Amino acid sequence: MSAQISNEVALRIGLAARALPDTDARRLMTVLVDAVGLPITETKLARLKVNKLRTASSGELEDIEVSFMKKAVNLLKGIGVTVDAEPLPETTPYSEGDMPGSIRVACASNNATAMDGHFGSCSRYLIYQVSGQEYRLIEIREANIPKDAEDKNVVRAGLISDCQLLYTVSVGGPAAAKVIRTGVLPIKMPDGGDSVEMMQNLVSVIAGTPPPWLAKVMGVAPEERVRFAQGEEVE
């Protein structure tokens, strides 16, 4: 697997790996070598079919949803590849206690304010502090996971262990269990979206009548959660 590849092919493989749940570039490279052979070239990738990628390397990727596979194959072909990513958003200072009654939310992201990443392969996590009055992007945490990490999902879960919610396009069952074990509740949103819009919506939900699961995340006492569910005013 030492054959040299062009910068363009390397870019495509990196972007395609991000589009696949729990898949890094090394895993995808292994499958591609079996699917198209060495050297991996733009010409070979242009002929790649979804089914060929799914069945390569003894079906290494066969459990991944077809919609994700189609997006990855398109990226491998150069469709939808953008060289210049949007600049990262600016963060806002935050100190503990600034926003009473707030919760912390992590958004899996690959680009700017987009919530477009899978938990196990996104480039970074956008960390928001959200209350019933406002939201702030307080930190951007790059997912620079060591290549020799024994369990990359455990390392990723540790990056967001101070949060209460995780917004992500996808997270596998075993990985979700590791996230939950740290006290973070994963929220899967397969279509993704803009994290700013999501946080604006969350502000409105917190300010109104939070559903029981969110009230629990917010630390509302059980008897008060019952009142929320019944639509009664909390004193």
UniProtKB/TrEMBL annotation:
InterPro entries per the UniProt record, alphabetical: Di-Nase_FeMo-co_biosynth, DiNase_FeMo-co_biosyn_sf, NafY_N, NafY_N_sf, NifX-like, NifX/NifY_domain
Span of domain Dinitrogenase iron-molybdenum cofactor N-terminal: 5-86
Glycoprotein as UniProt keyword: no
UniProt-listed Pfam families: DIMCO_N (PF16844), Nitro_FeMo-Co (PF02579)
Dinitrogenase iron-molybdenum cofactor biosynthesis domain span: 114-201
Record bears the keyword Transmembrane helix: no
Name assigned to this protein: Nitrogen fixation protein NifX
Organism annotation: Amphritea atlantica
